Amino acid sequence: MTLETPHHKSRERSDDGLHRAVSEPPGGPRAWLVWGTAAAVYLLAMFHRNGMSAAALHAQERFDLGPALLSTLPVVQLAIYVLLQIPSGLLADRLGPRRSLVISLGVMAAGTILFALAPDARTAVAGRVLIGAGDSLVFLNVIRVAALWFPRRQYSLVSALTGLAGGLGQLVSAAPLSALLNGFGWEVSFLGAGAVNLLVGALVLLLVQDRPDGRRAPSHAFPSMRESLAEALSHRGPLVGMAAHAVIMVPFTVLGVLWGYPLLEEGYGLSARATGLLLTGAMVLPMALVPFLGRIPGSHPRARKPMALGLAWTVTLLWSGVVLWPGGLPPLPVAAAVILVSAFASVLAPSISFDYARDGLPEQRTGAASGLVNMSGFTSVMLGVVGAGILLDMGGDEASFQVAFVPMTLLCLTASTAMTVLLRRGRR
């Protein structure tokens, strides 16, 4: 039985400052249930995306890999994720959330099982490729659920809560996954994760609908990729969203994807347990504040710009301090504070980046813009992870970790500058 829910009229902000009347859904308990189920898929995807950090040293021993080769495992996964963002955005516009999320869970399950049973690095890479392909469909469809089920004024809040769900996935991929790997071993841990994919897929089939009125997404022809990209890039909002995502969520994601555990264990000499607790603790305070801060961009549009600029430049300047610290890595309390601020920025990134991505675009054509925003962020992550791996291979001491984060910091500086220029132009 489907629930019929009325739509209400509101006024939507565009990047040229104009407002137009649109018909939008009212939200409500049913919307939160549907979104919550979709968000569980994102939590699981983030677990898979960031699990290599806790598993890095295990994988290094299992497959006999050095730092540069080790970085290929998450980087190949991220490369597939990035390359598929635009096709995934167009597919999201066509298939709708329910079918897209089921497909993504099936593909991630296959990749996780292959990764669990991989006898060598080549097979492990194939598993990460499948995980990246499945992951590429997830986030765009979760925020599509937010756009289809909630009014625009709640969109930034729901996007922030989606980031919170991703943060929970990162939490599970840190200390809990490390404990599972140490207690039960490689195969049992990752086979269990593959089984969870299938269970969540059953929940999606049971609870998720594409729209409040129960209609499925229309199977219309794919829009031209060139036209979709040109439309998104012709508006300032998606460009600002791309720049924001390329800095605000990047540093903590680079740590979560691979280099957090090696930095703290090898760079600072912490135990695996202490490292897991530090990375887990870094997420707790930001996650607690998300329900309050995440609603600001939607409820107070004028606050969106200072939030974006403040987070971007804070993260950039803090990591500049890390890589320029005299004599090597800064003291552990300083590094812990930088990690905490980076986690705070990462959790809030979706509420800002994807709110900008919607400016000036009709709801049914936001997939390509969201794909561009996600692509920009994870391209920066991928380059940061690879750059760190190469520089660590060239070094061999504690100071190597300080040098390893130079590429990531330069990317953040570039993106922050670009966003500042775009927002200044918008005032003229």
Automatic annotation (TrEMBL):
Q: Where in the cell is it found?
A: Cell membrane
Cross-referenced Pfam families, in alphabetical order? MFS_1 (PF07690)
Please give the chief subcellular localization of this protein.
membrane
Q: How does it sit in the membrane?
A: Multi-pass membrane protein
Specify the Major facilitator superfamily (MFS) profile domain's residue ranges: 34-427
Stretches with biased composition (Basic and acidic residues): 12-22
Q: From the UniProt record, list the coiled-coil ranges.
A: none
Keyword rRNA processing included in the entry's annotation: no
Membrane-spanning intervals of the chain? 30-48, 68-88, 100-118, 130-150, 189-208, 239-262, 274-294, 306-326, 332-352, 372-392, 404-423
Q: SUPFAM superfamilies given for it?
A: MFS general substrate transporter (SSF103473)
Q: Does the keyword ATP-binding apply?
A: no
By its UniProt entry, which InterPro entries does this protein fall under? MFS, MFS_dom, MFS_Efflux_Transporters, MFS_trans_sf
Positions of the UniProt region annotated as Disordered: 1-24
Entry keyword set: Cell membrane, Membrane, Transmembrane, Transmembrane helix
Q: Which named protein is this?
A: MFS transporter
Species this protein is from = Thermobifida alba
Classification lineage: Bacteria, Bacillati, Actinomycetota, Actinomycetes, Streptosporangiales
